[in-house]
Design goal:
Blueprint lengths: L5 E4 L2 E4 L1 E2 L1 H18 L5 E5 L5 E5 L1 E5 L3 E7 L13 E9 L3 E6 L5 E2 L15 H18 L4 E7 L3 H5 L4 H4 L1 E2 L10 E2 L4 H17 L4 E5 L2 H9 L8 E3 L4 H10 L4 E7 H4 L17 H11 L4 H8 L4 H10 L3 H19 L5 E8 L3 E5 L3 H9 L7 H5 L2
Helix pairs in contact: 1-2, 5-7, 9-10, 9-12, 10-11
């Protein structure tokens, strides 16, 4: 990227990269130019939706009579992900039908479930990258006075292998990676990217007709929800630390009820109203447990011992030994329930189930059992008219 772009996060200077969508659009622009002019290029410029102009080097360049190919290698900057360093190729060939026609090739995934950016059966080339590809190719056809049609085929030689390390398998995108990006630029350690992924999963829940869903911060919660609570994995969304954002998004997709399932070490923070449970926003696990223990009648010595614990499991062990574990969990879950009710929109039900690695189920909020039943019910589907509005 020329010039290089940086952002500052947590007092660190981090280099930005560019998306697979930018790679595909730049490669398509270069291939179209070479096809219509016969000139080989070594680099190409690309204006991104964010306003940054990229100058990108080209690889795998070839020109024939009726088609040309060019590749751009993905650079994620200081936010390297599964697609970092991948070669994204664009082949452009002449067609009789006018216009720019965009399709996928080897290593580009296909959508198999509703609710994603593209409909089932389509290649996973999202809307903004498609617009970028079309606009850049049309700048070339306009400049060259070409009135015929062009087909742009995007491919990624390592796409199928790399896709196994992305969210694609869980989202029902098979056979390769997705061509993504809304700004064209990758910002390192982007929380927005994670929240966007949660939004995508919730949109899929709504598109599948589910009016209730479960949320969990991670894999432990996913397993507990499936193995202990008997919930279908397809109806569970991973929300990472972004519990408040996930609840807001659920409301925007007309989800009627959400059940949070999580380890005590995460969900205890909800007892103080912390809706982002990442440690950078605060810890307070033992302080919250101490406040609950105080309300449950714990003596000073026990409160001091809890504050010295490193893990919530260790704190639970002390509370169990004192015969106060159930009482403390009752207080905590009442607090969690109050804070969740304050966060959600009117009319949306929300509850929580808290567990521990060492002790299993620790407790449920008041509405949790009703939400579990709703999640298990076969009628957990939205009316067709409502699904069509999503």
């Amino acid at each position: 990227m020329n010039p290089e772009t940086y952002i500052y996060k947590d007092r660190k200077k981090l280099r930005c990269g560019y998306t697979t969508g930018s790679c595909a659009a730049a490669a398509a622009k270069a291939a179209a130019w070479m096809l219509l002019t016969g000139e080989c290029l070594e680099q190409v410029t690309l204006p991104t939706p964010k306003g940054t102009v990229l100058t990108l080097s080209l690889e795998a360049v070839s020109v024939r009579k009726d088609r040309a190919c060019a590749g751009v290698r993905k650079d994620g900057g200081d936010d390297a992900d599964a697609t970092d360093g991948m070669l994204i190729l664009a082949e452009v060939r002449k067609e009789r039908l006018p216009g720019v026609h965009i399709t996928g090739g080897a290593g580009i995934g296909r959508v198999t479930r509703p609710g994603l950016d593209q409909p089932p059966g389509s290649y996973a080339i999202n809307r903004v990258p498609r617009e970028m590809i079309r606009e850049q190719v049309e700048t070339v056809t306009d400049a060259q006075g070409y009135a015929g049609g062009l087909t742009v085929t995007i491919s990624a030689p390592e796409g199928e292998e790399r896709a196994a390390r992305t969210f694609n398998p869980a989202l029902g995108i098979t056979g390769g990676i997705s061509i993504l990006g809304t700004s064209g630029i990758v910002e390192p350690m982007s929380e927005k990217a994670l929240v966007d992924t949660i939004a995508l999963e919730l949109r899929m829940q709504a598109a599948a007709g589910r009016t209730y869903c479960a949320m969990t911060p991670g894999n432990f919660g996913m397993r507990f929800a499936a193995d202990v609570l008997g919930l279908a994995p397809a109806g569970i969304v991973k929300c990472s630390n972004f519990i408040g954002d996930a609840l807001d998004l659920a409301a925007s997709f007309h989800i009627k009820g959400v059940l949070l399932v999580g380890h005590l070490g995460k969900l205890v923070k909800l007892g103080a109203g912390m809706m982002n449970t990442h440690s950078r926003y605060g810890d307070g696990r033992m302080e919250i447990l101490c406040a609950c223990a105080l309300e449950a009648g714990a003596e000073t010595a026990l409160l001091r011992a809890v504050t010295e614990c490193v893990t919530t499991d260790a704190a639970v062990s002390l509370l169990r030994d004192a015969g106060l574990s159930d009482a403390v969990m009752d207080v905590l879950l009442q607090r969690i329930g109050r804070h969740l009710d304050r966060r959600v929109f009117a009319g949306m039900e929300v509850g929580a189930v808290v567990f521990s690695d060492a002790y299993g189920l620790l407790g449920k909020t008041e509405r949790a059992d009703a939400l579990i039943a709703a999640l298990q019910a076969p009628e957990n589907r939205a009316p067709a008219a409502e699904r069509e509005r999503l």
